[in-house]
Amino acid sequence: MSSNHCRFCGAGLKQTFVDLGRSPLANSFLSAEDIGRGELSYPLHVYVCEQCLLVQLQEFERAENIFRDYLYFSSYSESWLRHSRNYADQMIRRYSLGERSLVVEIASNDGYLLQYFKEAGITVLGVEPAGNVAKVAQDKGIATEVAFFGAETAHRLASDGKNADLMAANNVLAHVPNLNDFVAGFKILLKTTGTATFEFPHLLNLIKERQFDTIYHEHFSYLSLLVLEKVFAQHGLRVYHVELLPTHGGSLRLFVCHDTAAFARSGEVDAILKSERAAGLDRIDTYANFSGAVVDVKCDLLNFLIEARRSGKSVVGYGAPAKGNTLLNFCGVGPELLAYTVDISPHKQGRYVPGVQIPIYPPDRILETKPDYVVILPWNIKDEVVERMAQVRSWGGKFVIAIPALTVLP
Q1: Which of 43, 165, 301, 309 has the greatest count of CB atoms below 10 A from its CB?
Q2: In what order do the strands lie in the sheet with 221-222?
Q3: What does pTM read for this prediction?
């Protein structure tokens, strides 16, 4: 267990952002043999640093253990693949990338993104800590280093002549316990004329939309541009452009370069900073007041599920995302209220949600049992789910989301 100090500036952490009690690791899905055995759980107590305002969770389990047998594969979301292809097309045009360029992705997962650069004839390299996931990418012919990224890995790759024209870090910045070492690696591996892009769920949306279910042990930090400008500046890097993205309930894509590079700072950077200040992200009281909204979500979901049971209605889930596991464990929802959930990933089918032990089936299970309600746990792709499972409405079934508020979809 790490000491309770800020992972960026080192100040002591005293101010609670939200305390979700204890929960198992969000992606530690159970096999049938695991049922009945004891499960490890860890505190989900999130703090905000009163000095630099970084929102963060302590490191209760080493990253090496979290990612040893990882069960999240990016390629099972059609909308995420479309997003990734669009990104590749945009970056190739924007930076005139070609066969002499090198694109490096950090936390490259199963090759979901780099495959599109490779198709364009561009040299690619993935860095992925989960060996089982990296193997899927390697089997596709995508060069992948099985390693955690930081200064040491960056020095090793740079010494082998690998200097990146473009580095991508999608939904990984929040996953690193040693934030300073991780960012230092980009300073080392990125060409002096290169760009690194970072995508992450925006803390502003987490607060406004009550997205507390995105809090789990893999996410060590919850990020704003206000904080990240300080982080990058400390390591000789600067943010020169920002894009707002709809992914993961509202994300930012930061364009980062060396502080000596010629890229001009865009107006979008100051616009996002202005919106964060307007929402109070520069004031400690904004963070201190978040917990009450979380309790409201819990009460509303439990009231809905209890009333449905008393009315003889059947309720199941769609998806087994990490965010769903946080929601279900915090609310104490087991199979007595949510009979089962389904997931498109065969790696999760036949397993059980950690903690609450809800069984996970293939999506066809819903068509067989015809439930009255389907709670969409990955609410960030609710439109994709509703389209994919449109047949639910043929028997009068309805879709439900719990975040930002309990809603039965029209």
Answers
A1: 301
A2: 15-23, 42-48, 55-57, 221-222
A3: 0.89
